[in-house]
Design goal:
1 helix, alpha+beta, five-stranded antiparallel sheet
């Protein structure tokens, strides 16, 4: 009985088929990996925007007034279409309202949203980190101001201290692998403590 080996044509055909199978498997793996990565980036953007919006919502609820402009440490902060200065009642360590005013500024600084605290004397907010970056994946922060009648107030033209409601829109973006990912969240918030 004579043992017969593979011919060159059979070997080349086998190598070609194996190469095609490996290429298909690699393409499938890469496609799956890219889909997973895209989903993770979108989830991170959603979470980042949600945390920022939650912090801004919580503090806006507690605000008594939108302030057109506030100065601190030689820097002036103005309420605009992408920045808001809020006056809040200061609280002591027992969460009791004390006299004076606290101010919080939320603003877009380049591609991030930051919170700045300008605390009153004796306020627990004096211990808050400032400035604090809330979101560094931000493309835009848009703020619209409305009075109690629902009419939109224009920063720079109207007195923003009459604002009763804010409409916030946060668009977060991130570029990875030549692709840009984007999420947008919006909320409308009432100044719950207006009139204190």
């Amino acid at each position: 009985m004579v043992k017969r080996g593979f011919t060159l044509v059979e070997l080349l055909t086998t190598v070609a088929i194996m190469s095609i199978v490996m290429a298909v498997m690699a393409q499938s793996f890469l496609g799956s990996w890219n889909a997973q990565l895209s989903q993770e980036i979108m989830s991170e953007l959603q979470r980042s925007a949600r945390l920022t919006l939650d912090e801004m919502t919580k503090q806006t609820w507690n605000a008594t007034t939108v302030v057109s402009s506030i100065s601190s440490g030689g820097t002036s902060y103005t309420s605009t279409a992408n920045s808001v200065a809020l006056r809040l009642p200061p609280m002591d360590a027992n969460n009791t309202i004390i006299t004076g005013d606290d101010h919080l500024v939320f603003r877009q600084d380049n591609r991030r949203i930051e919170r700045r605290v300008i605390p009153g004397s004796g306020s627990i907010r004096a211990g808050w980190k400032t400035p604090l970056t809330l979101n560094d994946d931000t493309g835009t922060l848009t703020i619209k101001y409305y009075n109690s009648a629902g009419l939109e107030l224009v920063p720079g033209n109207d007195d923003l201290s009459s604002a009763r409601k804010l409409a916030l829109t946060i668009r977060t973006t991130r570029t990875h692998g030549g692709r840009t990912y984007e999420r947008e969240l919006a909320a409308t918030i009432m100044l719950r403590n207006k009139g204190l």
